[in-house]
Each structure stands twice: as C-alpha cells, then as structure tokens.
Amino acid sequence: MTKTDVSSLTQLGSEAKMPASPEEAVLEKVPAGHCGTQYVVRFTAPEFTSVCPMTGQPDFAHIVIDYIPRDWLVESKSLKLYLHSFRNHGAFHEDCTIDIAKRLVALLDPEWLRIGAYWYPRGGIPIDVFWQTAAPPAGVWIPYQGVAPYRGRG
Q1: Which positions are catalytic?
Q2: Could you tell me which InterPro entries the record lists for this protein (predicted)?
Q3: Which residues are part of a known binding site?
Q4: 49-96 pLDDT tens trace
Q5: Which residues are annotated as a binding site for substrate?
Q6: Between the CA of residue 39 and those of 36, 81, 133, 143, what are the distances in Å?
Q7: Residues 137 and 112 sit within 8 Å (Cβ to Cβ)
Q8: Prediction pTM value
Q9: Domains of the chain from N-terminus onward
Q10: CA 104, CA 147: separation in Å to the nearest integer?
C-alpha cells in the first residue's frame, strides 16, 4: 500500500457489518505519513463493553490507548468495530485489555504502545488494567491519561 492508496481497506468508506467477536473483527492499518517523527496517537473508548465470562453480566470500561507509530497507523473505523466486537464477548477484564494491546502491537509494530483500561466495579471492586510494550522513549511528550480512579459516592 502506498502513502495515498487505501484501496485495500475493506471497511473505510463503505458500510461495514458489526463483527460478532474479536476473532472475527478485521483490524486494518494505513501508512503513517510522518515516519521518523516521534509522536503519540491516542484513542479513547469511554464506553467499552464486554461480558463477564462467569455471570454473563455486562462489564464497562474507559479504555485509553496511546502509541508511537513506526510505519503504520491503525485505521480508526476498523478499531471502532474491533472494540465494539467485545460487546457480547465473554472474557475477564485482564484478558480483554491485554488482547486488545497485543493485537494492535502485532498489526502495527509500533515504537511504543500502552493501554490503560479503567473498569467499572464488578462485585463492588473496580479492576484497572495497565500494560505497555516498554519504557516510553525519552523526549516524547506522553500526556497523562486523565482517567480518575473509581471513587464511588463520597
């Protein structure tokens, strides 16, 4: 794919069916326009949902993904559909979070990636999950994710 050729993309610019599962979802990438420049790309999904694998009850999270691209950017519509594919997917918080991160790393081979998943309480206990590929590169401005820990009423 050249810098201007996006003809191989299957979802951008056309109607795309919601994938039934994360395994069925197609994540796509586009060429990064500023190779050799270190910058951070942030995606925020404040209404992420999945399903508890034990009870079948819905789980909710605020997910923040930051990465420094090398040659590729994730195509945002495909990411949105991928994240929505977890809606009926039964998995623990930790599994959802790490699966998302590892799938993006496998697709993009970014210079650096981190994910912060701020899960709302299940059984009265919030479970937050954080992961990154390595220490952030020196000299790159990486903003605070800005999601407050769950405090409940008070």
Answers
A1: 52, 59
A2: GTP-CH-I_C/QueF (IPR043133), NADPH_dep_7-cyano-7-deazaG_red (IPR050084), QueF (IPR029500), QueF_type1 (IPR016856)
A3: 74-76, 93-94
A4: 999 999 999 999 999 999 999 999 999 999 999 999 999 999 999 999
A5: 74-76, 93-94
A6: 9, 24, 16, 11
A7: yes
A8: 0.89
A9: 38-111 (3.30.1130.10)
A10: 21
